[in-house]
Amino acid sequence: MAARRRKPRLGVWKFASCDGCQLTLLDCEDEFLAVAEALDIAYFPEATRAAVKGRYDLSLVEGSITTTHDAQRIQDIRRRSRALITIGACATSGGIQALRNFADVREYASIVYARPDYIHSLATSTPIADHVPVDFELRGCPINKRQLVEVISAFLAGRRPVTPAHSVCIECKLKGNVCVTVAHGTPCLGPVTHAGCGAICPSYDRGCYGCYGPMESPNAPALSAKLGELGMDQRDLTRIYRTFNAGSPAFRKESERNGP
Amino acid sequence: MVRKTIKVNYLARVEGEGAFKVVVRDGVVERAELSIFEPPRFFEAFLRGRAYSEAPDITARICGICPVAYQMSSIHAIEQALGVQVAGPLRDLRRLLYCGEWIESHTLHVYMLHAPDFLGYDGAIDMARDHADAVRRGLALKKAGNEILTLLGGREIHPINVRVGGFYRVPTRRELQPLAEKMKWARDAALETVRWVAGFDFPDYERDYELVALSHPDEYPFNEGRIISNRGLDITADAYHLHFEESHVERSTALHSRLRERGAYLVGPLARFSLNFSRLSPTAQQAAREAGLGQACANPYRSIIVRAVEVLYACDEALRIIDAYQPPDQPAVQIEPRAGVGCAATEAPRGLLYHRYRLEDDGSIAEARIVPPTSQNQASIEADLASFVGQWLDLPDDQLRHRCEQTVRNYDPCISCSTHFLRLELDRG
User: Fold this and answer.
1) In total, how many domains does chain B have?
2) What residues make up the domain containing B106?
3) What are the residue ranges of CATH 3.40.50.700 in chain A?
4) Cβ contact (<8 Å) for B416 and A48?
5) How is domain A9-157 classified at the CATH fold level?
6) Closest Cα to residue A128, out of A180, A71, A177, A167?
7) In chain B, positions 264-283, which contact chain A (CB-CB < 8 Å)?
8) Inside any domain, residue B112
9) Which residues of A touch B155 (CB under 8 A)?
10) Were A43 and a residue from A11, A118, B156, B395 both cysteine, which residue would form a disulfide, CB within 3.0 to 4.6 Å?
11) In this structure, is residue B177 part of a structural domain?
């Protein structure tokens, strides 16, 4: 009889982040034990103190690079990972902490800390793909658990994950939502935002706030013109593009077009 | 002189990145230090210039495990600055949302992060091999809490339905009903959880803490109440800055908070329970008694029982709210921006979470101050290590290291929050 195949080794890594995206794995209450069966969870400090050194078949990376130490650490993780997948807005676009990219980080440190000289932080918060090649990026602040299960299943099956790159608008249409902008004049980033959440905000009578970042080829200037008609001024427009995916090229460009 | 060094460079089963160091000289613990190396993200800096309405969504991102706590403290502080009162069903729905977060966060800690210490496993995955039914019950109970968050908040992590003044959309009675069925099951599972953890072996250590928690005349505290302690503190959140101070030490990117007059203090389940026992539901009080807890608890290892009791309470409270719910006419109260200062503290699962905002005329944030529970508990965690470790110095290094880790995990420290944590370094001189 053939020997049982070794289970693929999973590593879950954290950089600057809120822990929410890796928590999503623990939030897969119905699937978690099955995932633990299919994969050898070799490094996941949020869940276990057991740590296997060496190489990993799949690394899930949460968080952005904000320190020189982390910039080195990601190089080591990449070298030891067969596949490296980033999970969430911090890892794919720099996260909310990328707001420092538009400001002076020394001033930020002096606002929060009595001794800014104790703080060693880079001037920017950057996505993982700015530092190492990334095999797949899963969007969202936070990521969607069904999409996470899809990404892990696809990895186990050796195929590409199915995570559509169209806009949140399509998800609204699929759900049969009434358009909050057309029907109620509510400003919504749905037309330029990457699908994946299931159009949660419009389903709760709220405009999308772009936490999944830009869709493929968004037309943000056209949306900004519409949002202007709905009463948003340039400062509002700068703010709305400058949140959890402020560092993504499309949102950064549009926020800069509208304000300093 | 006896010399020895043990290090834990990255503490597992806590939320975030931290380490600790214990310094021993000739068999006596000289000091214990927590280091938090979670990279700072500067929330209080980039909140400046944002609209007041953005604070709940932005501050939620401080912590993926307790986003509701950040949303709640921010909205209460901002509502105070704007002179807004939120009462009736909207207030009840906020409590219901907090019930969901307590159930989800406490159950995660009890089953997946803390129980493995008592039963001798590296984590819940190993534990599931021998205790499959318990782990499944834990996952299902956690899921029940998450279902409240999903229904009322739109999703488990970083709910989208919370706003200053109320919600974007409120549920109908009919929409809440399936939750009631789920909560009846969850209440039974929570009671089983209390009985399960009450059977663990607990180190017999107590310390004389200054316990700090919210206290409200009519309810076990979530959103509102005075900040009180077992040593006579009794203030509103407005006076917080007069009694508490934060300091910055080089080893940590999290600030240390102390009482100006008396130093270290403790927030979280032990403090809440000991100061508010009489406001627990009768079922929760009885379960606590049967589990061997008095009306107060000063043994940090028993915090796992207190968390389980609080989960039971949260299930009871959720059921009460769902049963009494009548939808409000409007999902939110009307807001008029104005200049002002507002402070609020709410009870995050890990303890008191204080926010303060100064707003400009147009409602933009001019200044923000956030003091998370783990910053407040750092001094007590260090004091626990310093006072307990001495008794374990004869243990082999790996067991000693494990005991130290467990001692830190008693606090369910949330390091992502406080950095705004853990390596063990044991220096035996």
Assistant:
1) 1
2) 43-375
3) 9-157
4) no
5) Rossmann fold (3.40.50)
6) A71
7) none
8) yes
9) 142, 197, 200
10) A11
11) yes
CATH label of the domain that carries residue B277: 1.10.645.10
Handedness of CA A66, B352, B89, B359 (dihedral sign): negative
Q: Give the residue carrying structure tokens 């207190």.
A: B306
> Strands B166-167, B162-163: parallel, antiparallel or unpaired by DSSP?
antiparallel
Give how far Cα B121 sits from Cα of B194, B195, B248, B334, B406, Å: 20, 20, 35, 52, 12
Query: Does residue B121 fall inside a structural domain?
Result: yes
What token pair was written down for A151?
């990404």
pLDDT in tens, B295-347: 999 999 999 999 999 999 999 999 999 999 999 999 999 999 999 999 999 99
In this predicted structure, what is the pLDDT of residue B400? 83
Count other Cβ atoms within 10 Å, centred on residue A250.
Answer: 20
**Does the CB of B48 have a partner CB in chain A at under 8 Å?**
yes
Evaluate the CA torsion angle B204, B208, B212, B213 in order and state its sign.
positive
Q: Which of A19, A36, A107 sits opposite B65 (nearest CB)?
A: A19
Report residue A71 as tokens.
């910039």
Q: What would the pLDDT profile of B259-303 be if each residue is shown by its tens digit?
A: 998 999 999 999 999 999 999 999 999 999 999 999 999 999 999
Query: What ipTM was predicted for this assembly?
Result: 0.96
Enter the tokens of residue A57: 């078949």
DSSP string, B71-122: HHHHHHHHHHHHT----HHHHHHHHHHHHHHHHHHHHIIIIIIIHHHHHT-S
Residues of A in contact with B124 (CB under 8 A): 47-48
Tell me the mean pLDDT per 10 residues along chain A, length 260. Answer: 74 94 92 90 82 90 95 96 98 97 89 78 95 98 97 96 96 97 97 98 98 97 97 96 97 93
On average, the pLDDT of chain B sits at 91
Return the pLDDT at B4.
55
Residue B290 domain-assigned (yes or no): yes
What pTM was computed for the model?
A: 0.94
Residue labelled with tokens 């869709």:
A215
